[in-house]
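Please check both lines for our workbook:

___
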Amino acid sequence: MKVLLIKEVPGLGIPGDVVEVKDGYARNYLLPRKLATHPTPHELARYEKLRAQYQAELADRRTRAQLLAEKLAGAEFTFARKVHDEDQLYASVKAQDVARAIEEKFGEKVDPHRIKMDTIHALGEYDVEVGIYEDITAKIKVVVTPTD
């Protein structure tokens, strides 16, 4: 069955795409959840405009992500933590802490799940990769120092 996608469906397409799917998938999943509709001439014309807007929005997201990646490239974030025996931290540094620091410094939100790092339990310098958007990433440095 051919359907016209109304919303983005991962692995299938974006709004305005006409795709061929199995009848059961269309009837039981896509159509009831308002993810797709039947591709009538009226609907095709209506969603052609939506598709153009969606394409422009994707290009804008990619541009903003690229700018943020350039800002973040080589940035250094310092976290001061209390330490005990052998430079072990009382409070570890997590991806949420790094995301909060990025937002404070650059005013841009980054999903903590897209920050590739292990929880830091000791003093030192660490290289961290931040996934910003799809395939756009930036490498930052996280420095953990003792508090006085």
